Amino acid sequence: MPPMAKVDATHSLARAELHHPEPDGDDDRTALVDDPVVRHLRPCLQTARARPSEMCSGCLDHLETAVRAYLRQTHSVVPLSPPVTRGGLAPWQLRGAQEMMRSHLDEAVPLAELARACKLSPSHFARAFRQTTGRPPHRWLVEQRIEKAKQLLVDTTLSLAQIAQNCGFADQSHFTRVFAQLVQSSPGQWRRHRRSGPVAA
User: What percentage of the chain reaches a pLDDT higher than 70?
Assistant: First the structure.
């Protein structure tokens, strides 16, 4: 196996990059790569990371912890940095989920559909989305609906009932209540203030 391949195989065993405090050369790397425990656990980790929806995140945590402990004790291999916190969405997953929700602001997007697009279970997706954005999917969606409503309030003459319908709210009352909670103003007051502009001194 070429030296670079040996290093790559070693690095892929844990999420953090690995190194030996005092490398002893190719023989030391070869012993690490040829280790039977390393050789058998590496495919397990790769499979678990490639198909997260089929793998309990807690199980993966324990597996990686075991690998790091084994490498530290048997080969004096230590992580250069603390393990990366897992559980959030990958960039492509976050981008896809947000695009799906933005393109359907006027209707409900089933959590199962969002999760399926991200190749995750609904519960895993909900946890990962919240960890990545700091908000549950529904809360993020509501905030996007309010942003669209603000645009319609300023740029159109649509009634509040029409805006509520276009932004996916059950009715005008629901829209008004949610808008007031997030913006600290009713939609009508907010529209009048924006259209009148700042009062001259």
Answer: 62
Nearest-angstrom CA–CA distance, 179 and 53: 35
pTM for the predicted model, two decimal places: 0.56
Residue 108 pLDDT greater than 60, yes or no = yes
**Contact 165/106 with Cβ under 8 angstroms?**
yes
The domain limits of the chain are 3-79, 87-134, 135-201
Token pair in block for residue 8:
């790559």
Residue whose token pair is 């932004």:
167
Each residue of 37-53: b (16+ CB within 10 Å) or e?
ebeebbeebeebeeebe
Q: What is the second-level CATH architecture of the domain 135-201?
A: Orthogonal Bundle (1.10)
Per-residue pLDDT band for 110 (boundaries 50, 70, 90) equals: very high
Rounded-to-integer distance, Cα 193 and Cα 189, Å: 6
